[in-house]
Amino acid sequence: MLLPGLTTGEIGRLVRQIPTHYPFVLVDRILEYDAGGRLVASKNVTGSEDFFAGHFPQQPVMPGVLILESLAQAAGIWLLKTAPDPRALEIRVVGFDDAKFRRPVVPGDQLRLEVQLERRRGELARFRGDVRVGEARAAEARLLLQVATLPEPELDPLARVAPAALLEPGVKVGPFCVVGPGVRLGRGSVLESHVVIEGDTRVGERNRFFPFSSIGLAPQDLKYRGEATCLEIGDRNVFREGTTVHRGTSGGGGITRIGSDNLFMAQVHVAHDCRVGSHSIFANATALSGHVEVQDYATLGGFSGVHQFCRVGAHAFMGGGTVATKDVLPFSLVVGNRARFFGVNTVGLRRRGFAPEKVVALKQACRQLSAPGLALAEALRRIESEGPLTDEVRTLVAFVRSSKRGVVLERRGSDDDGGEG
């Protein structure tokens, strides 16, 4: 049972206050909680975990460092839950001692994470951690964590911050920045200088805005009549010089949304009602028109553009200067104006740790999709009937079936399936 008053979403928010945490929350549920110093949590290890792609493709094993990270997250949750004002704190992992790994952790295991406070002095807290799968001990270690108090928001005297703006601990606002009354800046976010953030804009934690970025202003849409719309930004994004991100419109749901861990290089534009996932890279002067969706781990080359209402699939790579007027397939490489299909983004997938057999399955599916003279419906039927139907191929098929603008499948002159990503 979840700890009373601590929802699954709150677990995620608490874990984000550990700046060294792995990009994913490694605690699913709180099973037992004792204010005297003990906490028991669980983590369900599934085959879809991102880290299994490269560790190891033929024999997936949870990395030992992530098993220790799960213990650190459980201990951090205990420290934050017992604090009078957890939003003002940051949990830092100092180190691990006496770590021992007794058995591999594989997909299908459920981890029982137990941490017990041994000693606390000042900012430092020492825990003993134990990880079990059923009755078998999988790992154990001693953890040393630091409970640091974040400073109050730091405002340069030359910045203009509306009294109604909400700035959380650790925020820094540099000279000549303008922050409007509807803005919320999450913990540790930094506005370097000459940054403008306006409107109903909710910024997560540890984002960094470089000079002359313009965030949350009214959309460039002639149909916009000043209605209340908003912009949501996740955690740890970087917005380089001159980046512009606009709020949504009523015709697009009223919200522009950006995930976490993205890099927006100089002069990137994100228009109204866009949906941007996480871990993506937008090179210099990339432009997203209104209502565009960019899924996780995509890379868009410099001076590339995406037509309104189009989608860019996960792990896709758009070469520099590419203009996409149709949906860009997940895992694909496209280049040109207009975009041409260059096969599977093999280099990018290898760098992300995809197993060779998964890349081969994607290549086979893409050859069917782009085969000359083969109707798209027949290509999808062959892919589903002949296989291999890996998770990635299923994602590809579902993406094609859900497309409203069509997908980029026009080939270049050669039939090679190489890729850069």
Key attributes of the depicted protein:
single chain; 421 residues; Thiol Ester Dehydrase, Chain A; UDP N-Acetylglucosamine Acyltransferase, domain 1; 2 domains; 11-stranded mixed beta sheet; 9-stranded parallel beta sheet; 34 strands; 32% strand; flat
Name of the CATH superfamily of the largest domain? Hexapeptide repeat proteins
| Biggest sheet, spatial arrangement of strands | 7-10-13-16-19-22-25-28-31-33-34
**How many H/I helical runs?**
6
The average pLDDT score comes to 92
Give an account of the 3D structure.
- This protein is α/β, with parallel strands linked by helices and 421 residues long.
- The chain has 2 domains: 8-149, Thiol Ester Dehydrase, Chain A (Roll); 154-350, Hexapeptide repeat proteins (UDP N-Acetylglucosamine Acyltransferase, domain 1), CATH 2.160.10.10.
- The chain is built from 6 helices and 34 strands.
- Strands 7-10-13-16-19-22-25-28-31-33-34 form an 11-stranded mixed β-sheet. The protein has a 9-stranded parallel β-sheet with strand order 8-11-14-17-20-23-26-29-32, with no helix packed on it. An 8-stranded parallel β-sheet has the order 9-12-15-18-21-24-27-30, with no helix packed on it.
- Helix 4 (356-369) runs antiparallel to helix 5.
- The radius of gyration is 24 Å and the shape is flat.
